[in-house]
Design a protein that fits this description.
about 200 residues
Length: about 200
C-alpha cells in the first residue's frame, strides 16, 4: 500500500495570526511529505511483508507485526504521517472557544471544568522534553486522559484513541514563536476545531 499526503483542509494562511502561513507551508509540504516518503521507502524494502497490505491505522496499532528491520522507520514515519494527518483536521479558521455537546460534558466530568482541563493540557504540552506531542485520548478503560508522547509516537500504539493533539516539535512553531513554546500553546487554542473533536469522540 503506497501512502500519500492528504489534502490540507485549508489554505496555508487560514490559521493566521496564530499559526503563520510559512510555518504551515513548510510543516505540511516538507515535514509531513518527508514522513510519507520515508514510510513508503521503508515498506518498499520488504515488498512481500504483511505490512504492505495494512492500513496506516493498522500499522500504528500493531507495530509488532512489522518486520523488525523496518519497524523503527515505520514507527517514526508512519507515526509522523498518522499524527499530522489528524493534526491538520483538528484545526480550522475561526476555531477555538469552548467545546459543546458530548466532548464538553465529558471534559467537565473528568477534569472538573474546561479551564482545569486546558491548564492540565497546557502543562503537559510545556513539559514534553525535546520533540513530541500532547494528547487528549480515550484510554484503554474508555476514560478521557491527557498524555504526552515522544517524537512521532502515537497513543494508538498503546491502545488509546487520540481525540485532540498538539504538535510541540520545534518545526511546528519556531519561525513565529522561536523558543516560546508556551506562547504557541496559548495561541493554538484559537484554532482548535471542536466539531472535529466531537465527531472523533463519538466514533472512538
Amino acid at each position: 500500500m503506497k501512502f500519500t499526503l492528504p489534502q490540507l483542509p485549508y489554505v496555508f494562511d487560514a490559521l493566521e495570526p496564530y499559526i503563520d502561513a510559512k510555518t504551515m507551508e513548510i510543516h505540511y509540504s516538507k515535514h509531513h511529505q518527508a514522513y510519507v516518503d520515508n514510510l513508503n521507502k521503508a515498506l518498499e524494502e520488504h515488498p512481500q511483508s504483511h505490512a504492505n497490505t495494512m492500513t496506516l491505522d493498522e500499522l500504528i496499532k500493531d507495530l509488532s507485526s512489522v518486520t523488525e528491520s523496518i519497524r523503527t522507520a515505520v514507527r517514526n514515519n508512519g507515526g509522523g504521517h498518522y499524527n499530522h494527518s489528524l493534526f491538520w483536521q483538528m484545526m480550522k479558521k475561526n476555531g477555538g472557544g469552548e467545546p459543546k455537546g458530548t466532548v464538553a460534558e465529558e471534559i467537565k466530568k473528568k477534569f472538573g471544568s474546561f479551564d482545569q482541563f486546558q491548564t492540565q493540557f497546557n502543562e503537559t504540552a510545556k513539559k514534553v522534553f525535546g520533540s513530541g506531542w500532547a494528547w487528549l485520548v480515550l484510554n484503554t478503560t474508555g476514560d478521557l486522559e491527557i498524555v504526552p508522547s515522544h517524537n512521532q509516537d502515537s497513543p494508538l500504539t498503546q491502545g488509546m484513541h487520540p481525540i485532540l493533539g498538539l504538535d510541540v516539535w520545534e518545526h511546528a512553531y519556531y519561525l513565529k514563536y522561536q523558543n516560546k513554546r508556551p506562547d504557541y500553546i496559548t495561541a493554538w487554542w484559537n484554532v482548535v476545531d471542536w466539531d472535529f473533536v466531537e465527531n472523533k469522540l463519538k466514533k472512538s
